[in-house]
Design brief:
Oligomer: single chain
Protein name: E3 SUMO-protein ligase
Keywords: Ligase
Structural class: alpha/beta
Helix content: 55-70%
Strand order of the largest sheet: 7-6-5-8-9
Number of helices: 29
GO molecular function: ligase activity
Organism: Biomphalaria pfeifferi
Number of strands: 9
């Protein structure tokens, strides 16, 4: 519009010409708009505004949206300016009207009016999630992985989020435990897929199972698998899954395992070892799960978990000695005194502080946790003097019958010494339990550790001279009367006997040729032929799995083993090899021992323990 036109419209021209100019603005001027039908485009003002002599100028958008403003009823000026119209486009009433019409065109308003409470919360969460940056979400996922690494529950993730949120920006809407579970599920799906691909490509694997019952009394089957990646030398023991079973009979468990292999595309014939607890439903000779699997897998070997064996041997000896039942009753009584009373704990801690003694919390006895006996006895030994003083004071104050019972037992020299010796023995067995839980432990090595521990206990306690630990020896020498240790020595004798029966010398049979003690061949013919019968037996068992001719495999194994044992003997002498794992890694690198390595690889896949996490095994 020219200056003359503007001047005319400001009052210098007639009313008629001014009306014409107003109409000219609506048709001749255009502006950028965010209208639903023309978002981001330039439209004429006439598409947004309209003019009538009676009402003046009105906004079509505000009228259609039902807004309450002067632009809806009509706006008139004596002095008209185009800027007045443009200014309205940025006002809140006009912006709200445009948004309302957009939502109507998309059906959003209708959905908002009809949506449920859960849908509304989900819509708000999605809107908040879209505001988070990828780096912020990555921090949240790292926090979840940290909780998994430190073996903490998902409930602790919120605390980790709150702590990290003090130093870096992370979205509030992603901090709930539900998102922690969601993150872990997505990470697990990726890891599980990669892990299952490795298991499928592995030459062999071991299946490790244990049955359990959850809090809803549902029957569960926990699966672990041991394998070696085809391009690596490290053997991995991984969690494979939890299966629900109809019942805990052998046929139901067998069918669940078979279905698991079919669903995940695993080859049953690659299973070389089946490891479980010693229950008859698992390892029964005729109808156990291992027997049913062997009908499909002729070369399959079964293994009773070595840690279970040790615990069962200890349990058998514990039940047969009256002194052990007496100690068990005392341990349970002591724990019961303090487990639910803060007042009693405070009094006990006060005595300990006065005596300048270090306290260890009393621990309960659990039937299903391997180290619970050691923890309970060790706590009593460490707190013995303070607890004795505590019982004396309580008996003097109110003649409490429970404390009086504990005082009578603790005052017996024989029981005091027996508890000290028992603590030393249980410490040895606890150490063995932890060794047997190593994920990289082979069957041969587990057997060697168990037999070595049995020999140590026999030589220390069952010979003509008893070699007690220093603290126990000081305790015995401080007593004024001779102490009868017959019962506790009998207990140690039975522990060794039961462990010997559960770790028989002929258990490994053919695999025994890979023990370090066997690598002592010399040039004479008798020692040269040592191990050939075992090699022939192994060739017969695994020729189909290895897809080799039986006679050729027997010949190759005997020839390679004859050279192998002499070579390993020299390596052991100079100390370059120390464990079965070292020997295995060395053999893998020798091309001229390739057939022998195939057999040793199968042996290494045999896992001697059920890898079910238990308290105190960290």
């Amino acid at each position: 519009m020219s200056k003359r036109q503007a001047d005319d419209c400001s009052g210098n021209t007639s009313k008629k010409r001014c009306l014409e100019f107003k109409k000219e603005w609506l048709t001749g001027w255009s502006v950028a708009t965010d209208l639903p039908h023309a978002s981001g485009q330039h439209v004429q003002l006439g598409e947004i505004f309209e003019f009538s002599e009676s009402r003046g100028v009105t906004c079509k958008i505000c009228v259609k949206a039902g807004a309450t403003s002067e632009w809806t009823s009509g706006k008139t000026w004596t002095d008209w300016k185009v800027d007045h119209l443009k200014k309205h486009l940025g006002q809140k009433a006009q912006v709200d009207s445009v948004t309302k019409l957009k939502n109507q065109s998309r059906g959003i308003l209708k959905s908002m009016l009809t949506e449920s409470k859960e849908e509304r919360e989900m819509r708000k969460e999605i809107a908040q999630r879209q505001q988070a940056t990828p780096d912020e979400v990555k921090i949240l996922i790292d926090n979840v992985l940290l909780a998994i690494k430190i073996n903490s529950s998902m409930l602790s993730v919120q605390g980790i989020h709150d702590h990290v949120g003090k130093y870096v920006k992370i979205p509030e809407s992603w901090r709930s435990k539900n998102y922690a579970f969601e993150f872990s599920e997505y990470v697990n799906s990726v890891v599980k897929t990669e892990m299952f691909i490795e298991i499928k490509n592995a030459a062999y694997h071991t299946l490790i199972v244990d049955e359990s019952t959850d809090i809803s009394v549902s029957k569960m089957l926990i699966l672990y698998m041991n394998y070696r990646n085809e391009n690596e030398s490290i053997y991995k023991t991984v969690f494979a899954g939890i299966l629900k079973v109809i019942a805990c009979d052998s046929l139901s468990i067998f069918q669940a395992i078979q279905n698991f292999y079919i669903e995940n595309g695993f080859d049953l014939n690659k299973m070389v070892m089946f490891t479980s607890d010693g229950a008859s439903v698992m390892l029964g000779k005729r109808k156990g799960v291992a027997a049913l699997l062997r009908q499909l897998i002729p070369h399959l070997s079964e293994q009773h978990c070595v840690a279970y064996r040790e615990d069962l041997a200890l349990d058998d000896a514990w039940k047969n000695i009256p002194l052990m039942k007496e100690i068990e009753t005392l341990l349970r009584t002591v724990y019961t005194i303090f487990c639910r009373s803060c007042v009693k704990k405070a009094k006990f801690e006060e005595l300990a502080k006065a005596a300048d003694a270090d306290l260890i919390a009393f621990r309960p006895l659990h039937e299903v946790r391997w180290l619970s006996r050691h923890f309970a006895v060790n706590a009593l030994v460490k707190n013995y003097d303070v607890f004795l003083q505590y019982c004396q004071e309580k008996v003097e104050e109110d003649n409490d019958p429970v404390r009086r019972y504990c005082l009578e037992k603790l005052s017996k020299p024989e029981l005091h010494v027996a508890i000290g010796i028992l603590n030393d023995v249980l410490a040895e067995l606890a150490e063995l339990t932890k060794i047997l839980q190593r994920s990289v432990l082979s069957t041969v090595e587990a057997f060697q550790f168990a037999k070595a521990k049995i020999k140590k206990l026999r030589s220390q306690y069952l010979g003509e001279n008893k070699h007690f630990h220093e603290e126990t020896s000081i305790l015995i020498s401080s007593l004024k009367v001779p102490v009868n240790t017959t019962s506790i020595i009998k207990f140690i004798q039975q522990v060794c006997d039961h462990m010997d029966s559960r770790f028989p010398d002929d258990e490994l049979k053919d695999w025994s040729v890979f023990e370090k003690d066997c690598f002592c061949a010399t040039a004479n013919q008798e020692e040269y032929s040592f191990g050939h019968e075992q090699m022939k037996s192994l060739a017969t068992r695994y020729c189909l799995l290895l897809q080799k001719d039986e006679d050729i495999l027997k010949s190759d194994l005997c020839k390679q083993y004859s050279e192998f044992k002499i070579l390993i003997n020299e390596k052991l002498k100079c100390g370059s090899l120390t464990t079965f794992s070292d020997i295995l890694a060395f053999t893998q690198q020798q091309d001229h021992l390739n057939k022998l390595f195939l057999i040793m690889d199968i042996c290494a896949h045999s896992r001697p323990q059920v890898q079910i996490a238990r308290e105190g095994l960290a």
